[in-house]
Amino acid sequence: METRRVTSFDGTDIAYRVTPPPFEGAKTVILVNGLGGPYLAWRAQVEYLSDRYRFITWDYRGMFESRRPSPDTPDAYAVACHVRDLEAILAREGVRRGSLMGWSMGVQVALEAFRRLPGFAENLVLLNGTYRRPLETLGPLPGLGRLFPPLLDLATRAHAVATQVTRRAMSQPEAVIWLKRMGLLGKTLDSEVFAELVQPFGQLDMEGFFRNLRALGTHDAEDVLDQIHVPTLIITGDRDTFTPRALAQSMARRIAMAEILVVRGGTHYTAVEFPELVSLRIERFFADHGF
């Protein structure tokens, strides 16, 4: 993927990536990233489908190669601002319609994009995500999510220490083993693949991460679900503790043209753990709906 840059509405410098169109008139798929991984999380899907589609994705403001917004910009990390960053990218690339494919946080950004960019989405692919205030559903115990906002405030103030701790943890070869034992990653996940994902994550300035997470925690797109009248594919794992499959099933019932795939053994990283299955299902979904 070629890296390009664009200046967004408030002057923030945004890094985005594109693949070349495989042929004239090829459809465009917008990959809407999660907060817990870079664009490399989509590697399997891009490799499998790039002979048919053009892909565009971007680093959220304050994440990876995108710059941090000015502290004077109100709500600078709000989900709506990420959509405006996407608007700037679409304008630069001359893209008027396409597929919105979101993972984790990207599900909420994709839903917000559907709201704010009417007529753009020909279809939606939503993986391991939710539509409302994700911190309230995080964790296995009811009510646990109420503890996260004050913890986030503390972590944001101590972001320099958090950055050092994260870098040290991500550099440990045993990190994947720990995460698998905790049930946060599936046993089928290739350790080398995951190591490639966490390497850039370990270089993050965690202040941008925490500010994005804090803004995400207040986002609610529940009212968008009843407005969606394009084909929608929802994919989740039955072991996803971050966005439990009940949320995916709830979305599938609310969206008029929704289909759902629940992957047995899949965690929050279902598309990375089961790349062939997920890619094949997306390919079939696109074909079934003429995309």
How would you classify the helix and strand content by structural class?
alpha/beta
Rough outline: globular
- The biggest beta sheet, please? 8 strands, mixed
Task: Assign the CATH class.
Answer: Alpha Beta
Radius of gyration: 18 Å
Model regions low in confidence, pLDDT < 50 over at least 5 residues: none
CATH topology description? Rossmann fold
Distance between the termini: 22 Å
Mean pLDDT level: 87
Strand content: 15-25%
Read across the widest sheet, the strand sequence of neighbours is: 1-2-4-3-5-6-7-8
Secondary-structure element pattern, one letter each: EEEHEHEHEHHHHHHEHEHH
The helix fraction, in percent, is 40-55%
CATH architecture: 3-Layer(aba) Sandwich
Q: Determine the number of helices (DSSP H or I, runs of at least 4 residues).
A: 12
Please count the beta strands (DSSP E, at least 2 residues each). 8
Q: What is the total number of structural domains?
A: 1
The CATH fourth-level homologous superfamily: Alpha/Beta hydrolase fold, catalytic domain
Pfam family, one: Abhydrolase_6
Organism: Sorangium cellulosum (Polyangium cellulosum)
InterPro entries: AB_hydrolase, AB_hydrolase_1, AB_hydrolase_fold
Keywords: Hydrolase
